[in-house]
């Protein structure tokens, strides 16, 4: 049985807030700590550099997943925060 693919919820932004990112981000040359909002996350919770070559690879490689993203933005933040604490 094939897993059903999940599309990212536009305006969620959990993956741009909860985890730490160690690679450079435009405007954040040292990356960002866990729980800090990425400077490239707009007020609408959409990435300002989506699809651009200077977007970190870790961001481009992240794929929405039901186990991580769940059904709400808060669920995603909670799961990603817990995973960050475990690593």
Structure overview:
With about 90 residues, the chain is mainly alpha-helical. It has one domain (about 15-85). It is built from 3 helices and no strands. The protein has helices spanning about 55-60, 65-70, 75-85. The relative contact order is 0.24. The model has no long low-confidence stretch (mean pLDDT about 95). It holds the Pfam family CxxCxxCC. InterPro entries: Puta_zinc/iron-chelating_dom, UPF0153_domain.
Task: Name the features.
single chain, 87 residues, mainly alpha, 26% helix
Low-confidence stretches: none
Report on the biggest sheet. none
Sheet-strand content, in percent, reads under 5%
Class of secondary structure makeup? mainly alpha
Report the average pLDDT across residues: 93
Radius of gyration: 13 Å
- What is the H-and-E element order? HHH
Instruction: Tell me the total number of β-strands.
Output: 0
Query: What is the helix fraction of residues, given as a range?
Result: 25-40%
| Whole-number count of domains | 1
Described by the principal axes of the CA atoms, the overall outline is: globular
Helix count, DSSP H or I runs of 4 or more residues: 3
Distance between the termini: 31 Å
